[in-house]
Amino acid sequence: MKSVCVRSILLALVLVGVGTMRPATAQGTTHPGCPLCPGGGYSVKALDRAGEEGPGRALEEKGGVFNTLLIAPDSMSEVQNSIRWGATERLELGLTYLVDESRFLGQFNYLLMQERESRPSLALGLGVDRPGGMENAVFLIGSKALDREVGSGWSGYAGVLKRKEENRLRVAAGAAKVLSPKYAATFQYDGEDGHLGVQTRFGEVNVSVLWLRMESLGAAIGMSLR
């Protein structure tokens, strides 16, 4: 495990240089990004809705880069490193490196419709099919801040995904509740299992403790590389 973690960290350091070459402009705060990436994508933006400038802002900017290291000992992929880049105000591109298998999965996310007060955003993308997963899924996801509908600090997403090895659609959904400017609770459903998380922030670093499939612990560390 030690050598696997070292390889993943080295990859992240190499990719730091990739993300420091572009300018930045803002886009929607509930844009789901990678909806099933633990500690990243949609969930990492929950804390930014509390009003603090944080690392999740990198996922809302043209040229912003965000890196996530996941360690999940009882998952299909025990260690994986993901990096996502805001190519335009609507398009995110990325790669997930499965350290155990020494292979990459591509990612993209295109914002089809911006969120408004009366409607959710809508995004089409490709990303990991479950937290700690080893394959991708295509997804169509709507997401929205739910402060008016549910209560202050709530947001959620819902949609469908299609896994590579399956011939049917699955429902994907998630929710986040900002507990304070530095803490948030998250839930992700991948069409088969539910996953809980508690997220906190240390400066430009987000740390998530995860209860994957409601049966095993994992952790994710996310940071802006802009």
Q: How many whole angstroms does the radius of gyration measure?
A: 16 Å
Strand order in the largest sheet: 1-2-3-4-5-6-7-8-9-10-11-12
Q: What proportion strand?
A: over 45%
Number of strands: 12
What characterizes the major β-sheet? 12 strands, antiparallel, barrel
SSE order = HEEEEEEEEEEEE
* Category from helices, strands and their pairing: mainly beta
* Average pLDDT figure: 77
In CATH terms, the superfamily is monomeric porin ompg
**Unreliable stretches:** 1-29
Q: Report the end-to-end length measured between terminal Cα atoms.
A: 29 Å
CATH topology: Porin
Helix content: under 10%
Question: From the 3D coordinates, which CATH architecture would you assign?
Answer: Beta Barrel
Characterization of the model:
Strand 8 and strand 9 (183-189) form a beta hairpin. The chain starts with a helix and ends with a strand. It has one helix at 2-16, and strands at 65-71, 79-86, 91-98, 103-113, 121-128, 136-145, 154-163, 169-180, 183-189, 194-202, 205-212, 216-224. The protein has a single domain (2-224), classed as Porin, CATH 2.40.160. It is built from 1 helix and 12 strands.
Blueprint of the fold:
Layout: H1 2-16, E1 65-71, E2 79-86, E3 91-98, E4 103-113, E5 121-128, E6 136-145, E7 154-163, E8 169-180, E9 183-189, E10 194-202, E11 205-212, E12 216-224
Antiparallel strand pairs: 1-2, 1-12, 2-3, 3-4, 4-5, 5-6, 6-7, 7-8, 8-9, 9-10, 10-11, 11-12
